User: What shape does this take?
Amino acid sequence: MKFIKSDINLNFTGKSKLAFYISATMILVSFFSLILHKGPKYGIDFAGGTLIQVKLFAPASINIIKSGLDTIDLGKSSVQQFGDKEENEYLIKTDISVMTSQGLSGKVKKALEAATGNEVEIRRIEMVGPQVGKDLREKALFAMFYSLLFITIYISGRFEFKWILSGIMAVALMSSVYFLSFINLSSIPILITAALILAIILFWFLNLKYAMGAIVAIIHDVIITVGIFSIFDKEFTLPIIAALLTIIGYSLNDTIIVFDRIRENLKKYRKKPLDFTINKSINETLSRTILTSVTTLTVVIALFVIGGGIVHDFAFAMIIGILIGTYSSIYIASPILLIWQRSGKKI
Amino acid sequence: MKNFSWRVIIVFAVIIAAIVYIFPTINQGWWPHKKINLGLDLQGGMHLVLEVDTDKSVESTIERMTYEVRSLLKKENIRYVGIDRIEDTKISLKIRGNNNILSFNKLLDTELKDLRVLSKSTDNEILTMILNLPDNETRHIKKLATEQALETIRNRIDQFGVNEPDIRRQGEKRILIQLPGIKDTQRAKELIGKTALLEFKLLDETHDLNAALKGNIPAGSELLYQDNEDTATERAISTPYLVKKRTLLTGEYLTDARVQIDSQFNEPYISINFDKKGARIFERITEENVKKRLAIVLDNKVYSAPVIQEKISGGEARITGNFTTEEARDLAIVLRAGALPAPVEIIEERTVGPSLGADSIRKGLISMYVGGILVVLFMVVYYKVSGLIANIALILNIVLIAGGLAGFQATLTLPGIAGIILTIGMAVDANVLIFERIREEMNLGKTQRAAVNAGYSKATLTILDANVTTLIAALVLFQFGTGPVKGFAVTLSLGVLASLFTALILTRLVFDYLLINRKIKSLSI
Assistant: This one.
């Protein structure tokens, strides 16, 4: 069986302008949504606060639950349905993060049992203090930043044999960000953004074209995934960061396979123009790209539908990431090599 | 083919090792007794992060030193105007008279040489000096406080009785506690978080309590409260006491604390025993203060303030209060384990009930089966016999991950299950890469054997490159993550390694076996 004919020859690079507009629009929409929502919506892992998951043994409306909670002081709180409707589970969130040491769960249980007249089970409590939330936020950013740089070292090393050059560059960037973060000159998100932009500029001048293509594609994927999360008003939690890092790994996986074929074909078709070689490489690997996306999407969708409330958003992030990652390795990462050549550099 | 048989041995050895490691999880008691650990999110339990207020331990050290300096000066007959703790961690001194200043300066170089002089000025025969502790000493006190707090909490949890607790230091002043399967989380938190500083102080009976309540608190005394609950109305009652600030005896001399039941009122109380030194101090206090009231204070709450009837020797005392048996038991535990050197605060808590954990496992497994079966079907439909070979690899992949989890004693969490599910989708990628390559080579007109050879040799590097990057992301995640997320990084890394092994070595072996040993001319791919 075959989805893709082996002599397929679609003109991908010819549509790079269209792809560029599509990507630019998606990134702009992402930023717009982020600005509209005043930044990413942090879950309690990053914002601090308390989350309580309760299960009712008989259906009750959210209003009854809310009125029950009004009898105890929860500060700024919200109630939402969680998981499948017939499970009667709810998430109660508040921005207070100190009360769990004072029997908060017992109070919530009592108040809800009084309001609903039925037994209530406290299934999960998560409390994160404000300082821990801030620490985790910074750690998550550093994790993404470090993994990006490590990956670029590997790509530059494997594809262009520039292990030392890219290693020095990455270590210099990492250590300067690390030390600057101690001096508290600016906030860490700004610091890391600046470092990433600087990294792309350095890639350009140090002729690390494959690393640049890969990193631009990854940043593109992460921004759009974050943007779609923001549009759907979903929260960022630790598992979502895990999903983003996996997306980085996955998107790169795709990109590298195309790059690998480009490198191979560059030797094979020395006389042909670059866009021919790139197109040929994308077409040759297209079947594999689509197949792997299909199998990975299948399992992630299974997780999304059946996996239950706790992994729901994680699976959602993965679905978006796989789609965007597949798109970017075809339409973003490889055409960057073309831009490179058109600007008069040697490929 | 010598090469061939070696590969067979390696493959079988790896598979058998993985299966051996999985057995104990299925059937307890089997060798090698290494089960797959379930994370707190799957088996239920409590995860806490405490922060030790180490600044407080420095403050109390300075407070104690201020007291020591004062008694030292008294002993040496040096007259002083004032010695006080200021700005939390500094000692301020004022000494009048040249003779006094002279003998104090001597003392400064001998008995007090560990203190750092921050400022010194003499004006009109009055020496004003501010002292504090050197930085490395402060650091040492802080480090010690965290270590001591950790030991004390470990002690308390051991006595409380929790299966396989995990207690460790995290960073400079944080303590991570994992209590699997714990039911009464509230009680556990109270047990862990209590400072449990036991103090014996005299009541200030010379001054008027009512005047003190109006704000006129005499120097050297303080107001402390006793909390009770009226059993009939269930309302909290708070009784004030005017207590002398000076602590006569603390719980550091305790050797034992046990719950006893009062035969008269049938109420639990805690009987405490002091060591020899504590017993001597207690005897002296009771001897000197007969007919006065002695307050028993725990964490700045008065528990009782009995009148001392007579000198008590033997070093035994009792703490009463309207305890339930549980409260009394927990209190005895914290007293036995000792006080925390500084207060602690719970800054992170994650509690999962056992029923939710079981639900998560069930849902995770179902999604794994559904996703797995869909992928397996897809591979057979798309690649026929070769797809079957890839499916064998896929199933072995999961066996290897499970064996790896047990063998490395890693922890399986809910995101970890998600990682395995993701691996199922991504593991076939390596095989897809190889199969597509083989198809390409066959399109060029090569025989199947040659196409398989070319396909593997060309795809191997690509597969390595693609998987190393995922591995890099997973390793960074492992470094950064806590608990559940770490579990995801572990299964993802194991999955990548397993899929490299199955795709590059195992399926190759199957192809070689079929094409070379069994001389099959063509395999559907």
Summary: Chain A touches chain B through 71 residues (CB under 8 Å). DSSP finds eleven helices and four strands in chain A. Chain A has a mean pLDDT of 87. The radius of gyration of chain A is 24 Å.
